[in-house]
Amino acid sequence: MDDSTLLAELLPTAERLVDRHLGMAKEWFPHDLVEWRPPPPRSRSEADDLVPVGVGSALFVNLLTEDNLPYYFASIDNLFGRDGAWGYWTRRWTAEEGRHSIVIRDYLIMAGHIDPVELERARMAQVTGGMTPQPTSIEDAFAYLALQELATRIAHHNTGKALPDEEGYTVMKRVAADENLHYLFYRDLVTAALEVDPSGMIEAIKRQTLKFEMPGAGIAGFAQHAKAIARAGIYDLAIHHDSILKPVILGHWDLDNRQGLTSTAAAARDRVVQFVTRMGRAARRAKEPKAETAVATAHR
């Protein structure tokens, strides 16, 4: 099914999901969550002493990902268009995501957890580079955004739990709550698309599941930050399998029980189920000693 036809078919669903989102979303203000005070003058080494390395990496990556919002907006705006519920959602989502970068940066500067000079230089490099995932179809966008928003919610929430102060936990919990609403929007669009075009949607889920990566690939030192984040237990292979792949793909979307598909889509369904099972085994091995290659072998 081509993108314009699918958007037209799902417009009533999008309108309903936008209304639901507005009914569930709560107004909040970044200045209410962060106590304004003179930030302590700290070097990078002093900032590292305040939070574990993996938590500092999570804060760094989380914020720079939010800062790259202009390019995420451009991608979604080009796919969804500017009319009706689709355009309204894109603009509303953008406004909410922009607030996330405001409150996280306010918190980091006030708490002194990150060197502000390093942070600003990284922001300039990240936004100038403008690297983001580029789904090539509406169905690919739905699948990727559902998985990505849930992954982001988990990463934000786990980062907050690992912070040493209540203020940081409150900030990250508030941001995670927004991300969860964004996840629900895209999750349920995928559910609806599976009824309208099951074969096309399942093929998109396969593509996005097998090549999924967290946003932030353009951040300097991203691979090293990702390893530190995994070691800190904020986001790792086991979390990706247990909290995203299994409950969403096999649970909510019930992919392994989908029938009436084209032969290509049926093969895609089986490939995804096989992949999730393999990821589960790799996640269990990753918890054992000397399992450094678990993530790599899961993708073979």
> By CATH's scheme, which homologous superfamily applies?
Ribonucleotide Reductase, subunit A
CATH fold naming: Ribonucleotide Reductase, subunit A
- Uncertain segments of ≥5 residues (pLDDT<50)? 290-300
The rough form would be described as globular
Helix-strand makeup class: mainly alpha
Q: Helical content, roughly?
A: over 70%
Bin the strand percentage: under 5%
Named at the architecture level, the CATH assignment is: Orthogonal Bundle
Strand and helix order: HHHHHHHHHHHHHH
CATH class, named Mainly Alpha
Number of helices: 14
The span between the termini is 30 Å
Most strands sheet: none
C-alpha-based Rg, rounded: 20 Å
What count of domains describes the coordinates? Answer: 1
Instruction: Compute the average pLDDT.
Output: 90
**β-strand number:** 0
